[in-house]
Amino acid sequence: MAKNNCLKFLNFFSFMLIFILFYSQFLTFQTSLLNNNNDDNNDNNSNCRFAKLYSVEDLLYNQTSLNKFKADVFYWEGNFAKNGVGVNFKTGMTYDGHGINYYTGQPEPGYLHYWTAASKESIHLMLLANAVVGNQNALNFVCNNCTSQQEQLDTAITLLENKMTTYLNFNKKYPGFGGFIPWLYVNDSGMIPADGWSNQVPSLDNGEWIWGLKAIVIALNSIGYKDLATSYESYFNLLAENALTVFYDGNGNIRAVSQIKDNQAQPTTQNYYTTSPCYDPCYLDDPYEGEMFVFFADLYGNWGSNKDERELLWINKRAKLQSVEFEIDLNYWPKELKKPIEKEIKTITVQRGWWFSAHEQWKYLELPYLDIEINKRIFINGEKARTWNSAMNKYAGLFASVTDVSTKPSLNVQYKSDLGIPSIAFQSVSQFTTVTPYATFPLWLTSNEPIAAVWYHLMLNGPSMQGPLGSTESCNVTGTAISPVVTWDSKISTLAAMIGGISHFTRFALQLDGQYLRFCQIVEREWTLAFPYLNGELAPFLLPTIQIQNNLQDFIDCSI
């Protein structure tokens, strides 16, 4: 039987009480927002190079300083959320990002990333959901130059209205996608499939996007925008109706990429197929980001009389859900803590990663995995290992799949997936010199904000790692090069984590839909099977042991 919060909602009256309390909480948010139109919380007079104004001690021991640091982050990252940089306001759609000038940090003309994907949309929806219910940091990201909270809310609502219009228009023009979206080109007129994606669609990215849609439904309903909430709910239901038609290949297999014979045809099983040979992997069998679509298919797919077949989804995934031991060096145990006897703690038990890139923890931003105790313990162990790895090896930062650095002043950059921790990964890792601030996002979800802030601050302090558009994509640890781009993945995923992601919305949605208990039972069962024991839970998180070298000048438009 699933533990913790999962058991709280077996009783109908208990469920209704939670509904009333949750709904009342959101109404309180809205009342506060509407009564504070002249609130100055969105004012910010900080310098865009503000990280240098905070010390490690400020972030570790002064909650007021930590809160101000976070407010500065959201304000300056809000410059990325401007029309023509990270967002197209006419359509409400995201742009992947923008190339930036290596000397100034300003958007480089001609280097707009005019494409997007469902994954980018998911991050935007996470911020918008939190903004709608009155989170001031999220509101400041959505509009950092608005003069009131009401104006910020209006901006968020307009973006959501424009998004839904764009989604519906795309589905009308390309019904063969079943409502799902491939990689896309975006302009003021709407969106079209990107080159190579006119007749195929990925499940992983759509799994990230789907739960963002669900969060928007809950958020909009909570403040009385019923018509817009209904539009988002209807679109979610459209995806649920088509999920198995588009992506299910039988025998518990969800296609990683589904091929479409005719993107103008209405969804039928005959219109979708798997290539031979197929993509690697052919199917979603990972315990990382891809699992979000598997849960969507399991909980909301139209299984008809084949509901028992859902169990094959999880049986097929078990091979990659593995326990592995991360070895630690007790010489790095913090001096202020009692050092354990060596035989007591030699390793930390973690879930094996693909590369052990922080990107693989995306699902924790969106679904309430941490409600299940065994999963929470493993997740926290993994993030401890992430800090130990960098501290022990004197890496000046953390690792995640990201756009790599380029030599100044070149804007020719390449995406690098294989960044992580090889000793606890399936795949090899190619280098240990490119670090990225967004690799801290899982740390922000561990309830250890000061530790997360210190690691984030470490990388922001790298040369040219803050600019007029907020944080820079990545840098090398020698401080000689940056990645001269800004993107949703490498910037705003961290902000989503700082405000708790959207698991508080999706938890409630699963409860309302009667799916929460099954979600909890599956997580409890699968992680208990894979993790019969856990080592290293007494190990602390570690702080950085080295700084990024300062061999590159800061942006001339963002320096102190």
Mind explaining what this structure looks like?
Helix content is 40%, strand content 11%. By secondary structure, it is an alpha+beta fold. Strand 1 and strand 2 form a beta hairpin. Helix 4 packs parallel to helix 7 (203-222) and helix 5 crosses helix 6 (149-173). The radius of gyration is 23 Å and the shape is globular. The protein starts with 11 loop residues before the first helix and ends in a 30-residue tail after the last helix. Mean pLDDT is 93; it is low at 9-14 and 28-40.
User: Biggest sheet: strands side by side, in what order?
Assistant: 4-3-19
The shape is: globular
Structural class: alpha+beta
| Main sheet summary | 3 strands, antiparallel
Average pLDDT confidence is 93
- Poorly predicted runs are 9-14, 28-40
- The number of strands is 19
Share of helix, binned: 40-55%
Alpha carbon gyration radius: 23 Å
Proportion of strand residues:
5-15%
* Terminus-to-terminus distance: 56 Å
Query: What is the count of helical runs?
Result: 17
Task: Lay out the secondary structure.
Elements: H1 12-34, H2 56-61, H3 63-77, E1 87-88, E2 93-94, E3 97-100, E4 107-113, E5 115-116, H4 118-132, H5 136-142, H6 149-173, E6 184-187, E7 190-193, E8 200-202, H7 203-222, H8 226-247, E9 257-260, E10 272-273, H9 291-300, H10 310-315, E11 323-327, E12 347-351, H11 363-366, H12 373-392, E13 402-403, E14 415-416, E15 434-435, H13 441-444, H14 449-460, E16 466-467, E17 470-471, E18 475-476, E19 485-487, H15 488-498, H16 503-512, H17 516-530
Antiparallel strand pairs: 1-2, 3-4, 3-19, 5-6, 6-7, 8-9, 9-10, 11-12, 13-14, 15-18, 16-17
Helix pairs in contact: 3-5, 3-15, 4-5, 4-6, 4-7, 4-15, 5-6, 6-8, 7-8, 7-9, 7-16
